[in-house]
Write a structure and sequence with these properties.
It comes from Neogobius melanostomus. There is one protein chain. The protein is elongated. It has a two-stranded antiparallel sheet. The protein is about 45% helix and about 10% strand. It starts with about 25 loop residues before the first helix and ends with a helix. Helix 3 runs antiparallel to helix 4. Strand 3 and strand 4 form a beta hairpin. About 10% of the residues are buried. With about 270 residues, the protein is mainly α. It has helices at about 25-40, 70-90, 140-160, 165-185, 195-205, 215-220, 235-250, 260-270; strands at about 50, 55, 60, 65, 100, 120, 125, 130.
């Protein structure tokens, strides 16, 4: 027997993009945007920041683009020309009036930036949920307290939910953990120990619903295979995120994607 659709509809033109919710949509978008990133990196007139022999210009995450540029008069002019050319050929146009920019040098603003069509944020801007401001040493002050405040409000709302100890541990792992690990891995600064202690206190209050704990917290953080609940230790996550930098610097020559000697050593150890 042949299958027939229940509803007949006119064919959608190919320029109508993919269906909403289609898993291929983000992958196709990344492929479509990558030529722009390659063109920015290849353009010598668009100057980035030189660190350790590398020139950093563009960082892309899905549809969010972060550019770190120097020599603003020349770089921004060349960038706008490139964006216009990319828009004509791809049909994808970047709305400059909704694009934010921040000067990281006191000598840059405002004389060099008067003609640039971006929204200039002298008090900081947000990228991937992280508030960025110059000087960089203030980044945690702008983000840490707000993250803690949001988690406190959520825990206060969830306190009355009829959840078991195991259920509350799963809520921490599924909801709170991702919201904490991303900021501490993205902010390149030392996070005060006091901040982690406040998070541990909030976790304990939520786990025991404000009552006196009956099990040591250290035991709760142990994996389930060792009779624990696997409650995350945010401070240990913080250490794990930061230890990757010196390991990369020390063992991965020129930041190649080949495994460093420490990775090979760990791999051999796990197989013996």
């Amino acid at each position: 027997t042949s299958e027939r659709p229940l509803f007949k509809k006119k064919n959608s033109p190919t320029e109508a993009s993919t269906r909403q919710g289609c898993p291929a949509s983000p992958a196709l978008f990344i492929l479509a945007l990558e030529p722009l990133a390659c063109a920015i990196r290849a353009n010598e007139n668009i100057q980035g920041i030189d660190i350790g022999g590398y020139n950093f210009k563009a960082s892309l995450y899905a549809d969010d683009i972060l550019l770190t540029l120097t020599n603003p008069n020349q770089s921004i002019s060349q960038l706008l020309t490139l964006l216009e050319l990319f828009g004509k050929n791809s049909g994808y146009k970047i709305n400059c009036s909704k694009s934010e920019a921040i000067p990281l040098n006191q000598y840059t603003f405002p004389s060099h930036l008067g003609t640039a069509p971006f929204v200039w944020k002298s008090q900081g801007m947000k990228y991937l949920g992280i508030v960025i401001k110059s000087p960089i040493c203030k980044i945690f002050e702008l983000n840490g307290p707000n993250i803690l405040k949001t988690i406190k409000e959520d825990i206060r709302r969830w306190a009355a939910l009829p959840l078991s100890l195991w259920g509350r541990a799963e809520v921490i792992k599924m909801n709170l953990l991702p919201r904490l690990t991303f900021p501490i891995s993205a902010i390149p600064l030392k996070v005060p120990q006091k901040w982690f202690k406040e998070i541990d206190t909030l976790f304990t209050q939520f786990l025991w619903n404000g009552k006196k704990p009956r099990i040591n917290r250290k035991k709760l953080t142990m994996p389930k295979g060792k009779c624990g609940l696997g409650v995350p230790s945010i401070y240990m996550y913080y250490l794990a995120f930061n230890v990757r930098y010196p390991l990369t610097w020390g063992y991965n020559e020129k930041n190649h994607r080949t495994p460093g000697s420490w990775e090979v050593h760990v791999s051999k150890k796990n197989h013996t």
